[in-house]
Amino acid sequence: MNLVRTAMLIALMTALFMGVGYLIGGTGGMMIAFLVAAVMNLFSYWNSDKMVLRMHHAVEVDASTAPEFYRIVADLAQNAGLPMPKVYVIHNQQPNAFATGRNPENAAVAASVGLLESLSDEEVAAVMAHELAHVEHRDTLIMTITATLAGAISMLGNFALFFGGNRNNNNPLGFIGILVAMIVAPFAAMLVQMMISRTREYAADRRGAEICGNPLWLASALRKIALGAGRVVNEDAERNPATAHMFIINPLNGQRMDSLFSTHPATENRIAALEAMAGEMAPPPARRSRNQTERPATTSVPKTGPWGRDGSSRKGPWS
């Protein structure tokens, strides 16, 4: 089902790209756009992960350069039954993370310095489990290809007036077609990105909570990331807005409204879903016998894992 959905979404973005070509240059422009889209899809399939990582200046780390972070990802990948992905650190103070790669065997996960410095080990584990859920669901391929095509559509829209000004370009709709290519097409590409991200974040939240073992860790992490994303500007994301839907929280504005124009579901709604999931996972209270005396309630302790903190562990080195 994921393969069919991926093919349909890629076909939709390709058709949109061809439509922009038609509006700018008629049938000839559409054919050129089709050839360009075919080349871009093929190129994106093999190289989109490298492009996105390069856009955000991500640096690969391993067990010797970032031992704690690498160990967290390794434990989670084993928990999820996934191959070990490549691990990257983004030297940016905005707390955020994303996953990329065409399949689980060629996946990469990346977290920012701001995330690694501001979250506990349990919260980091929950965030990376969310990203591994995207890898497991094979969301990363469609998200990276969509980011590439959306950026290309926006670029074509920006140059539509320049290219469409030629009287010999066979533009069937004239100046109206140019306006549609400049305004409507990039907007439609943005809506497709939003649709892809919003429908997949809830599923990744739920599966990520299962992988790390505690939905409340991810709920707590989302609160901190949303707050930090609204305070710290991510300059690389601002320069490459087509990649915004790949992050766990919108890196552009820290948007919180669950509206049509948000690339992510509302953080409050995601947290509520995770808290409800935690309630479902909690064991039912034991039934007391009549002679059993009342005992004071004890505070539940979150499930710990091999990445749990003991109060003496160090946070880095992340930088």
TrEMBL record:
Cofactor info, note text: Binds 1 zinc ion per subunit.
Topological category with respect to the lipid bilayer = Multi-pass membrane protein
Entry GO MF terms:
metallopeptidase activity
Residues holding Zn(2+): H130, H134, E201
Q: Where are the transmembrane segments?
A: 7-24, 30-46, 141-163, 175-196
The Peptidase M48 domain extends over: 66-277
Question: What Pfam families does the database record attribute to this sequence?
Answer: Peptidase_M48
Keyword list, A-Z: Cell membrane, Hydrolase, Membrane, Metal-binding, Metalloprotease, Protease, Transmembrane, Transmembrane helix, Zinc
Asked whether the keyword Transmembrane is assigned, the reply is: yes
Q: Where in the cell is it found?
A: Cell membrane
Q: State the residue spans of region: Disordered.
A: 280-319
Q: Where is the active site?
A: E131
The EC number(s) given in the record are 3.4.24.-
Cofactor or coenzyme needed: Zn(2+)
Q: Which Gene3D superfamilies match?
A: Metalloproteases ('zincins'), catalytic domain
Q: Which InterPro entries match?
A: HtpX_protease, Pept_M48_protease_HtpX, Peptidase_M48
Family indicated by similarity: Belongs to the peptidase M48B family.
Q: What protein is this chain from?
A: Protease HtpX homolog
